[in-house]
Amino acid sequence: MKRTGIILFFSLLAFLSVAQDGAGKQDSITLTEKLILQEQNQRIIDSLVKTQLEKKLKETSLKGDKSDLEEKLRLLEEKEIARQKEQQERIEQLKAIGESFPVQPFLDTLFYIHTGIGSFSAAERARVTTERIQQLYGDDFFSKDSLKLVAMESITNIVYKNNFIVASFTDLDALWYGISRNELVTGYFDTIISAIATEKKENSFKNQLIRIGWVTLVIAGLFLLIYVINIFFKWQEHYLFKHRRTIFKGISIRSFKIFNPAQQASLVIKFHNILRVVAIAVVLYLSLPVIFNVFPQTKPYTETLLSWIISPAKKIFQSFVAFLPDLITILVVFIFTRYLIKIVGYFAGQIEKGNLEVPGFHRDFAKPTYGIIRFLLYIFMLIIVFPYLPGSGSPAFQGVSVFLGVLISLGSSSSISNMIAGLIITYMRPFKIGDRVKIGDVTGDVTEKTLLVTKIRTIKNEEVTIPNSNVLAANAVNYSSNADMLGLILNTKVTMGYHVPWKKNEELLIKAALKTRSVEHIPVPFVFQLELGEFYATYQLNAYTKEPNEMDTIYSELHKNIQIMYNEAGIDLTCSHFAILKDGKGIPVVPGNIQPFPDKD
After folding, report:
1. Alpha carbon of 321 to those of 207, 314, 316, 317, 327: distances in Å?
2. Spatial distance between the Cα atoms of 217 and 212, rounded to a whole number of angstroms
3. Which runs of consecutive H residues, i.e. helices, occur in 535-585?
4. Are the C-beta atoms of residues 94 and 28 closer than 8 Å to each other?
5. CA-CA distance, 527 to 492, in Å (whole number)?
6. 463-497 as b/e, with b when 16 or more CB fall inside 10 Å?
7. Does any domain span residue 593?
8. Which is it for the CA torsion 514, 519, 524, 525, positive or negative?
9. What phi, psi does 120 have (nearest 5°)?
10. Of 45, 78, 97, which one is at a domain's C-terminal end?
11. How far apart are CA 322 and CA 340, in angstroms?
């Protein structure tokens, strides 16, 4: 009891201290951490109280006291469930607003520190842990057996040689990943040992000798490659000099002589020498990243080398653009338009995915609307940059533009009508990609919709392209629009003589429908009697399906099952036109079952 009282006392002190610190700070991250720690401390207190209550419950024999103790235990359990839920919400809040700092002693990140401990922030913890792991690596007599885990009430330390604390972790660190503190620290403990061992192995004397050997080999290969490049260019130069009379004939445009043979040869030789120097420089430059990658300490210099090429190239490009003011204006307008189109495209994509909803604006409208806005923005951009184009003010340029405009307007009348029809179809939403439709005489699945045409694949795998103006003018039947919700009703007709009762016909037809694949059992198929003829009645079987794209296959299987049902019932589906004879009692008799000349009595 004395030990329990001491634990409760210190737990209360810790609780009050954390509460006071949290109230004095406005930082949201620190406040969230404090609240989580408060909940952890309160959880410890409640756990001790629960233990005491359970002990008293076992010792007491009074019924009233037992009921009182059981009620208190129930309240503690409910409180614990609510606390766990609230703690998880705070952890998620901390993940959303918090910042993670890597522990990176050897270039690669071993793990991340997300929370602080006491006066140490997460950044300070990550920095100190990194430095201490580096100190362990610097110990020439490092032994992994000297690294131990020391667990206390609210913290677990990774300790080296009993007095050097490498890293410390609390329950808050474990709660970040939803695991226990022991699991977290054990994983980090193994990671640190493995990283130090790997780094020592990588930087061992043997590996250093191997790296030096690789560097020597790379340098030798570099000198060999430069030697081959020099030999190659000297051979080319010798070849050019030997065949100079046939190769160099001067450069002229019509009768104007730009370079004579000697000037052309001199220019080619100079360019040839420059090309040789550039080739050697490129080989030297590309060899440096290879050499730097051999040693881990020099790997970051690879990015520096790349920046030395990218930065000058960027400056040259910027200087070139700055030299051409009109081009700057065009680029600004173009970039602005491009980013505006990207913004529109982003919102269109969100609407199409269903992440953004606009009242009265269907998801199917997003893509075509984006296409229209993009087209209009590009037209607007061309109108703005047209005066800045070279020669845009000349009569020849204007005449060619007018001529091209007339040709386009005369030759695109049908295309424009199809585009307008395509827009109307898009916003009418009579069908979508994948729907089984019938447009005019064509039945099949819609595979593509554009502003100009609609493509349909028939059951024969024939792709039919229908201009949108024809689609708009024809009657379009959509078999898929209500199939998911209400189901598509497939129907077929059967004629049967009156010698088969109508109840029997309905029974056989419904059985055939229920045996057919992809026919829904609910709603139940039903039969209509469409016509009562002189010799037979016409029955219509109606069955529901939610797979309209398979309607032809369903019809085929349905007809097969109808034949099977009637054959099994011994009923012939052929209906001959014959008169019904009646016996003396007025009951219809099939002629095949009576004598051709019955007795008169």
Report:
1. 50, 11, 9, 6, 7
2. 9
3. 551-568
4. no
5. 10
6. ebebbbbebbeeebebbbbebeeebbebebebbbb
7. no
8. negative
9. -90, 125
10. 97
11. 24
pLDDT in tens, 92-102: 666 666 678 88
Give the ranges where 386-473 is alpha helix by DSSP (H): 395-411, 413-428, 468-473
**pLDDT at residue 6 greater than cutoff 50:** no
Domain boundaries, position 145:
101-203
- Rounded to an integer, what distance in angstroms lies between the CA atom of residue 379 and that of residue 381? 5
Least Cα distance to 509 among 540, 551, 471 occurs for 540
Top-confidence residue, 527 or 424? 527
Pairing of strands 453-457, 536-545: unpaired
- The larger pLDDT score, comparing residue 600 to residue 165, is at 165
Which amino acid is present at 566? Answer: Y
Q: pTM score, two decimals?
A: 0.37
In the chain, the amino acid numbered 423 is L
Question: What is the distance between the alpha carbons of residues 289 and 268, in angstroms, rounded to a whole number?
Answer: 32
Most confident of the following: 160-164, 224-228, 316-320, 415-419: 224-228
Amino acid in the structure at residue 504: K
Number of domains in the chain: 6
- Asked whether residue 317 falls in the same domain as residue 215, the answer is yes
**pLDDT over 70 for what percent of the chain?**
71
The SS3 of residue 180 is coil
